[in-house]
Amino acid sequence: MNNRVVYHQLLRAALKDSFKLTMASAPQQIREDALIEELREIVGDENVLSEPEELLVYECDGLPQHKHPPRAVVFPNSTEETSEVLEVLSDEGVSFAPRGAGTGLSGGALAINRGVVIELARMRKILRVDTENRLAVVQTGLVNAQLSRAVAPYGLYYVPDPSSQPACTIGGNIAENAGGIHCLKYGTTTDHVVGARVVLSDGSIVDLDVNSPGYDLLGVFVGSEGTFGIATEATVKLTPIPPAVRTLLADFTDVDDASRAVSAIIAAGMLPAALEMMDNAIIRAVEASVFAAGLPIDAEAVLLVELDGIDAGIDDEAEKAAAILKEHGARSVRSATDENERKKLWAARKGAFGAVGRLLPDVMIQDAVVPRSRLPEVLAETYRIGARYNLQLANVFHAGDGNLHPLICFDLRRGDDLERVRQAGREIMETCVRAGGSITGEHGVGLDKSSYLPLIFSEADMSAMLQVRAAFDPKGLCNPGKIIPTPQGCGEARAVATRSVSVSRAVATGPSRPGADPMNETLEALPRGQSLFAHSAGDATRMAITASSRNSTEQKQSLTATRVNDARIKRELSLLVGAEGVRRLSDTNPSAAFGNNLGAERALEVAPASAQQASEVMEFVVRENLAVNPAGAGTWLDVGNSTTGAALVLTARRMKTIVRHEPADLVATAEAGVTLVDFQTQLAQAGQWLPIDPSDDGRATVGGVIASGLGGPQSLGFGLPRSFVIGMRAVLADGRQIKAGGKVVKNVAGYDLCKLFTGSYGTLGFVTELTFKLRPLPEETRTVVACGPVGSLIVAGRKIATQFFPVAVEIVSERLVSEMKIDAKRGECALLIRFAGSSRGVISQTAQALKLLREEHNNRCDTFDEDERLWGKLSAAPLQFSEHISWRVKLRPTDLVSFINDIAELEADDASHVSLRWHAGIGDGHLRAMARAPMYHREAVRALERLRRKAENLGGSLILESAPMEIKREFDAWGDFGSTVELMKRVKQELDPQNVLSPGRFFTDGESV
Ligand SMILES: Cc1cc2nc3c(=O)[nH]c(=O)nc-3n(C[C@H](O)[C@H](O)[C@H](O)COP(=O)(O)OP(=O)(O)OC[C@H]3O[C@@H](n4cnc5c(N)ncnc54)[C@H](O)[C@@H]3O)c2cc1C
Q: Which of 26, 371, 380, 544 is exposed most, by the fewest CB atoms within 10 A?
């Protein structure tokens, strides 16, 4: 411990004593001064503001309708200082709000009830740029636009581009899951952040990493609006600047035509980088401002359409888009002639919010999302609502995503009253929700919209969110009062937030004494250290159950194993799901791996036909003190650590309906038991697909794929499954049916529980239904296969991965090559490179790749047009053998190269892995290995230990997927969870306190996860 830290701790102890002495009688001011002094000691005098006039700036954010003056503003300079500050606040039970640049538009960065604002703006360094792996590590106070500017010389940029990017911070973007003009094609902030260092409200520091084993805590942190902790550092993806860009401006004399053109472009299988709309009011405002770009002021609407990619084929795409725009009534379509004109057009779009001040002095910015196909009717209704309330409405928005920004313009001086504006705003929200939309696509809920949240989420949904929040922030000190309204009715939600209910009532009935702040009174009435989320009587029982259940995981497992043989259990389950829904697993699923580890002959499979039945089964399971393994097709029941004895398998095999597919919205919903193959077949009929390629031999269900969260080789080009889940229904351990997300492609309402459940391997809930965003099927795909020695393929593959735009670059080991019937010589591996996109683009990229491979690397090459079967064989490889070892590694791509050499050595080592086969994605750093189990398991364990050490030393992970029981007993499946262990356990305890779902899947030490 360094001297400075010791000093602060001593000082804090002294201050605390003086604080306690004066507590009873001292006036508020003195108590506050003691706290402020303590904060000054940590960050320095110059980094704390506490004078009323200094605080004025911090009493609101970009939405001035909400004002809450903080007690003080603290500017930490490092993660460690932030941690010390939060530790002090936690000790004193003082709440706080993180703040970036304060450009938020939902009142999120306000410290209500005189909490402390933690302002990150001075932590704005770019700590590291790794051009080879296309990553940057930054402090979160960095202004968004500065990052792209800094990495532009390397031909890279940071994709998320909110219109506020010259001012807003990376931390604020992470907290809000900010979107931007280019997120139609590239996704929002959550798709571009791969790691975050976070200080939790008790001062502890955790590193959240999308690639590390365990729950996707990063996924649920992004978009948590500063209520889970303070992100102080972030690791973000950098993307190559596209070599070719075309920007089209189409003008319309009818807003309806413009909205219909938006859907038509998507339905035609195009995915522009950006597709934005501005209506006449906005056009006029912009043209009268410094952002004027020559937009036609007599147009009722303009669309800005941007296409990007490689040169080959981009003009065809632009022509196709222009033709569609004209077919749908565009008066003219013009293409930006140069970069200058393009920049001007985007400056006009990004400056639109600022320019509306020219219409009227006051404006309320709304943010809602609707399914793209409903845009015309919803847009028309927003104008009708404006007219009904006699308010001027202007619209500028991300049309491609259906993300509307109706701006309600008003003038308080001319007697417009705020109440009327609010009512119009609410009607607009309700209209969007009725159309199947969401209350916010990018600005967040914050203070402003928490009362709208019940429009889209039930009490059960919100209570689950509160439980996850309580896992991150048990004391409820982190940005309280935001996002989730106080639950009113009955159920778990009330139990979770009992304290909040009393707080809210105090607020609702007004201060009890003049000048007193009711929230503060309630906070002060709480015993020090007690949580705002502290669970009520029911929760105390639940906690007790949790503690005891944690110690009794094994007992419970063996109890389940014995009890499922009980005729009564079988009978009662049959009553719930019908006789056809209950059977011995061994009758139908002779999977040796499962039998090996779980005792298939004893296991009982329960197959509910609906979410309601699943809920009743879970209630029964809890009542009977049993445990279950949720499953899809049951191809991978032994994944991770063994859940030995949880011999009741809850399967989605009877939930096989594709609920809906909306091609114009690029969205589809399926029950969890639909196989991925059936789903893709249905989508293909409309020229679309779900761009994921996990391990699958045709049996995998969408529920199972998402529960494991794994992508395949084409994750390089399309991203991981987590990026495509936009909505989910699940049954929790206590039988509650919850929904997360929705059915629109952009949505930041509430916490992103879809991410948390994706990859949670059935330990948090039984997923019953999933909604995905889709992609148009590529016009053309082509795979180049090169054979040669592994070393030369690695070099060539890295070049192609970094210089071209392939969707997969996979090296396949010699044995696997021969099983896939690829024509290679003895001792050779194969390099598979897939290109997908427009025909011209694919043909041109393929030709260049062949040239490079042949001329520079002397590899033998071939190309496959009908390449589906090739990639299908690779996906099926891990499931080919039942008595096998299968594991995977995730590393930075440059580190994977050295790892492949170790694997090559292992190929000759039959004592540890028999007939080892592997394939490795050298573009994104994944490797999967499969082998037959050796005669003696110790050798395999030793080899795995050595390889895991190496992977972890390189900052990556090695996860054992399947293995015989003797190996799993000695080798933990997951490895090091790092600093997130406690957080993972808390999330599990909150959502499954009795440890009913897949007990022991993640931890083998008798803990509950
Ligand atoms: C003119 C204008 C245009 C805009 N355009 C867009 C747009 O196109 N797309 C879009 O998504 N948004 C847009 N916004 C909204 C806003 O800019 C974004 O929400 C942005 O992400 C906020 O960043 P900030 O640094 O200003 O955060 P703040 O406003 O300071 O904070 C926003 C939220 O993040 C939390 N927070 C901030 N920093 C951290 C941190 N380090 N750790 C944890 N929590 C933190 C705060 O507590 C708060 O809840 C716009 C705003 C304006 C004024």
A: 544
Looking from the CA of residue 144, the nearest atom of ligand 1 is 25
What mean pLDDT value characterizes the chain? 87
pLDDT tens, residue by residue, 776-790: 999 999 999 999 999
Least confident of 727-741, 804-818, 899-913: 899-913
**Atom 49 of ligand 1, residue of closest alpha carbon:** 108
DSSP string, 405-473: -EEEEE-GGGT--HHHHHHHHHHHHHHHHHTT-BS-SSS--TTTTGGGGGGT--HHHHHHHHHHHHHH-
- Beta partners for 845? none
Q: What is the pLDDT of residue 384?
A: 96
Q: Which token pair is 617? A: 């089964």
Question: Is the torsion defined by CA of 912, 916, 922, 927 positive or negative?
Answer: negative
Cβ atoms within 10 Å, residue 935: 10
Element (H, E) at 861: strand 860-864
- Residues near 797 by Cβ (< 8 Å), separated by ≥ 6? 809, 811, 831, 833, 922, 923
Measured at the CA of 265, the angle between CA 263 and CA 268, to 5 degrees, comes to 105
- pLDDT in the model for residue 646: 59
> For residue 887, which phi and psi values (nearest 5 degrees)?
-145, 165
* Separation of CA 177 and ligand 1 centre (Å): 9
From 106, 163, 469, give the residue whose CB has the most ligand 1 atoms within 8 Å, as the site to mutate: 163
- CA–CA dist 662, 133 (Å, integer): 36
Please name which of 364, 365, 445, 375 lies closest in space to residue 403, comparing C-alpha atoms. Answer: 375
Is residue 443 in contact with ligand 1, taking CB distance under 6 Å?
Answer: yes
For ligand 1, whether the C-beta of 212 sits within 6 Å is: no
Contact 215, 984 (CB under 8 A): yes
Q: Tell me the C-alpha to C-alpha distance, in Å, between residue 253 and each of 24, 263, 295, 376, 541.
A: 70, 18, 13, 14, 65
Tokens for 844? 């041109």
Task: Find the mean pLDDT for residues 372-385.
Answer: 94
Lowest mean pLDDT among 379-393, 489-503, 955-969: 489-503
Q: Is 917 in the pocket of ligand 1 (CB under 6 A)?
A: no
Render pLDDT for 49-101 as a digit per residue (tens, 0 to 9).
Answer: 999 999 999 999 999 889 999 999 999 999 999 999 999 999 999 999 999 99
d(CA 477, CA 889): 38
Instruction: Locate the ligand 1 atom nearest the alpha carbon of residue 479 and give its number.
Output: 47
What's residue 644's pLDDT? 58
pLDDT band at 555, cuts 50/70/90? low
Q: Which atom of ligand 1 lies at the shortest distance from residue 198's CA?
A: 42
The CA distance from 503 to 521, in Å, is 9
- pLDDT band at residue 562 using 50, 70 and 90 as cut-offs: low
Question: Over 60: is that where the pLDDT of 487 sits?
Answer: no
Residue 980: DSSP 8-state: G
Q: Quote the ligand 1 centre to 104 CA distance (angstroms).
A: 4
Nearest CA to ligand 1 atom 16: 104
Higher local confidence (pLDDT), 595 or 110: 110
Q: Which of 79, 164, 218 to mutate to test the pocket of ligand 1 (most atoms within 8 A of CB)?
A: 164
For 177-194, letters b (16+ CB in 10 Å) and e give: bbbbbbbbbbbbbbbbbe
Q: Is 762 helix (H, G, I), strand (E, B) or coil?
A: coil
> How far is Cα 97 from Cα 835, in angstroms, rounded to an integer?
46
- Residue 177, pLDDT > 60, answer yes
Answer for the pair 991, 764: CB distance below 8 angstroms, yes or no: yes
Q: What is the C-alpha to C-alpha distance for residues 172 and 193, in angstroms, rounded to an integer?
A: 13
Of 332-336, 358-362, 393-397, 989-993, the one with minimum mean pLDDT is: 358-362
Least confident range from 265-279, 304-318, 494-508, 983-997: namely 494-508
